[in-house]
Amino acid sequence: MDSAVLRIENFSASFGELTVLKDINLSLSRNTLTAIMGPSGCGKTTLIRCINRMHELISNAKVSGKILLDDQDIYNTDPIIVRRQIGMVFQRPNPFPTMSIYDNVIAGYNLNGIKLNKEEMDRTVEQSLGKAALWEEVKDALHRKGTFLSGGQQQRLCIARALAMHPEILLLDEPTSALDPKSTAHIEELVSHLKTTVTIIQVTHNIAQAARVSDFTAFLYLGELVEFGPTGKMFTGPKDKRTEEYLTGKFG
Amino acid sequence: MKGMAEISIHRRIWADKLFKTLIIVLSLCSLVPMFLILFMITKNGISVINWEFLTQLPKPVGETGGGIANAIMGTLWLIVLAFLFSVPLGIFAGIFLSEYRGGKLAYLTRLSIEILQGIPSIVIGIIAYVWVVMPMGSFSALSGGVALGIMMLPVIVMATEETLKLVPDSLREASLALGVSYPRTIMKVILPAGLSGIISGILLGVARVAGETAPLLFTAFGSPFMNQNILKPINSLPLTIFNYATSPYPDWHTLAWGASFVLIVFVLGLNLITKWVTKKWTVQF
Amino acid sequence: MNHTIADVAVPTARSKITLQYKWGVSEASFRRILYLAGLSLLILLVAIFFSLVVASLPALRQFGFGFLTGKIWDPVRGEFGALAFLVGTLMSSFMALIISMVFSLPVSIFLGEYFRHGKASTFLKSAIELLAGIPSVIYGFWGLFLLVPLVRALEMKLGVAPQGVGIFTSSLVLAVMIIPYASSIGTEVISLVPSDLKEAALSLGATRFEVIRKVILPYASSGIFAGILLALGRALGETMAVTMVIGNSNFLPQSIFSPGNTMASVIANEFTEATGSLYLASLIELALVLFIVTMIINVLGKLIIHKMSARK
User: Fold this and answer.
1) Residues of B with Cβ-Cβ distance to A83 under 8 angstroms
2) Which strand (E) or helix (H) includes residue A216?
3) pTM of the predicted model as reported, rounded to 2 decimal places
């Protein structure tokens, strides 16, 4: 039985006068991969940034409604705790340039002053890099700086860094849009394995990618959740006309 | 008609070539003083440098020999004091300016820094006199350190601000998304990423104040003794050079050349090290 | 894709994440510290101004504006008029500016137009930077031992009293010292002149000289002017090099070869020997004047530069 790990209820978000998300209702099951797609400006990035409260970094951001992680209202919790339970990988790989690969992976612990002993650190690093399909490639170079890796490897490093925190949910914001096709394929494969151990929400502007990797798909248009459902069903028989038009490329 | 046009073009081309030559000549001429200075200092100063010169205290007038050990020590002490007064405050003010791009206080702070930078060093010396020497009742290394610290402050603030502005936002986001608090993000992610620029700023600031004389004339004041007590007057290389060079004794003039050599090597050496630091340590994003 | 270790979720590590939330410095306190750091700079500047005013009050009250027009500076009699120093400052600074321009403008054109990249450019740039890095006491020392004899020889040829030291000598040293300041901004604005303007002129058959004269320099004029202002600000406040070669006379200079004093150099000379609060206050009032004048000039110069970059 799938339990809902994330529930979004009547959620709206605005920046100043501009309303970016209107009354979103969404419920996500554990250990699934949900793709969020839609044309530019539909609010998909804003949505996931609201989930880990990163949108608050912009000064005039306001929200209403609820987002519940495991039945816990994340807007009633310290955002720092929320962000430790929800990991994020960004569009452009951003490993910490002053740190080695090893230190990048456990950065979430080091920077937060959480003390791990050497064994815990080594195990976390190896596990996380393993889950991110990067261990074999870097295991002999763990103390080199992260910025010496290729784009695809850097992104996998960022995934490992997020995974090291054992998050409930992993948010991926168009993680492959800055990468070449080979790296993209690598990451798609890795993500489809990962979803069995962590719930993933992936924003993508690439419809084919959404079809390939996701279990569920949400289609956002102009800030509204137009349609949400199992990927296979939605792609073969979309219920809303706008979904159909987007999928067939009438706008994008 | 055609003849006239040709002459005119010839003249213009000739003027063009002459102008370029003039520009090159004048530009190179502007370097002549610098080469002269370096040449004179090296020629007159290098023969003075020996172990005794660097490790001994100055001798009274009439006695030959003696050295600038107390001046070197004093300069180092003053640098340390200036560092303590300016670096922590300067870095935090620089962080403030790079985090708050707009806003009234940021604007006024930036303006203050620009004005502070332009204040003549002798005026800063007077301020240190009024704030430290007068209450203390005596000259001291401390007051000299305060004066030099005030002079170093704008350099540090501006270097910090400029460097941190270049750190991309993506780093900040990566850190915050891991649940790292804002203070830790700044101090443990952003600041380290900008470290090379900040260190360059510090080195340049030190190079600048190491050569300053005017603000020390009535603060550190100078002293013929070796002094480790910051509440007492202290000597420095520039002060020594000034005193010896303007004295009527040729012996002392020679010492001044030696001291100048040491000072120039120190200052120019710092500048070179700064360039090297900037190249080697700049973080690639 | 191999991950060899079964996902034994490191339980201790995981639980530490939420349980061990160390409350370090809170965001609010940290921001307050930043704010205070910024504020303290503003306070520092204001405090400097107030201290100067308060410390020069005895002189301000005694002399009022007559301070700046008084010709006599006689500490013994308690008469403090700063006109001689104002004149000395203006004479040496403006002469230095003019002499320096003869060299700094060509440097700006050299680096901004003719040799923007490459070895020549790096060479000149580094050399100019070196020039700026030489401490002022060393300039003074060099001036004392090289320029003073030269000027003395010149004065003998001209039939003027061959003292060697004087306002003219100080303006020579100053001129060299401000070359880097006058040329740096000039270089930048000249190099930023849009190339389509230059190309338009060139394609009409103008020579490079004409392009510089008629297109580049007019366009860059306000930037060059800003550089001059900043160089002026630097010259006005320069103390050590001037003190060592200006001759230290408190009388109104009669010619450019007269010995004299600038506001900065008289402070350097007499401060440690000043007895009596009026004497001290008068010297501090000179510092106050220096402060205000250099502040105005620097702000003006920076304003022009900001306006120019805003224009782009």
Assistant:
1) 176-179
2) strand A216-221
3) 0.90
